[in-house]
Amino acid sequence: MLSASLRRSGGSFIMTVPLAYVEQNHLTAGTRMAIEIIGDELKIRPQRPRRLLCDLLAATPPGLCRADGWDEMGAAGGEL
Length: 80
Prior knowledge:
Layout: E1 6-9, E2 12-15, H1 19-24, E3 33-38, E4 41-46, H2 53-58
Antiparallel strand pairs: 1-2, 3-4
């Protein structure tokens, strides 16, 4: 098991990340990390990038079957 020391920087504490973890997960300076606190444990992992609707729509295969009348349907809930 690896260990690290905390250092104070202003009102925060800093912990170094082992190079092996950085290389294994292809991290760089500025990579966003997801942090979860569970009792006295701290889980840290690379944060997945948020996918944009335009990217999802662009990845939709051409000729995909669509429900007839879908575009003409009214709102069913709080979408608008």
